[in-house]
Amino acid sequence: MLPEEMDKLVTEMGQPRYRADQLLHALYHDSPTDISDLHQIPAALRDALTVSGYTIGSASETHRVTSEDHQTTKLLLKYGDGTLIETVLMQYPSKTKFHPRSTVCVSTQVGCAMGCVFCATGQMGFKRNLQAEEIVAQVLHFARALHERDEHVTNLVFMGMGEPLANYSETIRAIRLLTHARAFGLGQRSITISTVGLIPLIERLADEQLQIGLAISLHAPNDELRSKLVPTAGPNSVKELFLASKRYFKKTGRRITFEYALINGINDSPEVAEELALLLKGNGAHVNLIPVNSTAGGFQKPERRRVHEFQRILRRGGVNCTVRVEKESEISAACGQLRTDVIEKITSSRSS
Ligand code: SAH
Ligand code: SF4
Description:
There is one protein chain. By secondary structure, the chain is of the alpha/beta class. Helix content is 39%, strand content 19%. The chain has helices at 3-12, 18-30, 43-51, 120-124, 132-148, 168-179, 199-206, 223-229, 237-252, 270-280, 304-316, 337-351; strands at residues 60-66, 72-78, 84-92, 101-105, 109-111, 126-129, 155-158, 191-195, 213-217, 256-262, 286-291, 320-323. α5 (132-148) packs parallel to α6 and α7 (199-206) packs parallel to α9. The protein is elongated. The termini are far apart. It binds S-adenosyl-L-homocysteine (SAH) and iron/sulfur cluster. The site of iron/sulfur cluster has 12 residues, from α4.
């Protein structure tokens, strides 16, 4: 619940308003899993909440994989209806602060309808949207574990399973819950939404008066190539996305990152790099190259030499460019891969 909704609830139950703050603090910072754990409030109110049918949304962990350096943890979480989704914690030692940077990567949908050919989530098809509370539960699940080590969630990226803008209202509600000072209290500037590029919704997001960052998954400098990788992309998507990114920057003051999954022999040639540089140069855009994680589609990442050549051409053409650190590949890092791996194991053990 948003703080305003909690205020209304406690008032309607004949309770003083400060009970709303007690409840919010307990829910977002102590991470209880059941109303009976809420010892901050009187037993009569706990009972009244239970009788009225209120529950605390949470998710249970069914699988966990941790990278060798212990900095990346990927979980498979199960919701009440048996739905499985992935969520990831990535930690980076901080040079300036005592605590590490702890970024949670959340899923917004079970599966995805966009069908990107190299993406494990895209290949499983669309199952359902997640509700805001199910998105929030992913963050709180890690927050609880970090709290025990005296650490906390510092950043949030919407780069897990699903297309956040295709589940627009629940994604925005989750952001409001996670950033409200009386709720979880994360800074808006610490949040990035990644989108495959639903243009009308990028426009709507720009008008939300939020200070969140936007990453657009471009993957190609022209429509012919892009439509092979993102089959649901419109005929003019490259140019339209480029223009939408400029408008987003103008309205919010936040620079856009273009994500580019580099796939061996498909979109990684020096000529394609030149074309991308021509498209983006002089706009202050940032490109994040992601050597692709191979999934069932059989796509391979280019050799390291070729990745660096691509990066050099972009930089020479005046485009800011980084290569995403490849530390997660050992733990089925690509979105949807762990869920696919686990479900395959479950079904093959059932059939054997
Ligand atoms: N639907 C959104 C956010 C989730 S995907 C989007 O597409 O942006 C987050 C990022 O992971 C996207 O940039 C996507 O292109 C990338 N991705 C998906 N599958 C991948 C793979 N196998 N290897 C590398 N990156 C991948
Ligand atoms: Fe969906 Fe993003 Fe995967 Fe494309 S890359 S299928 S938009 S989750």
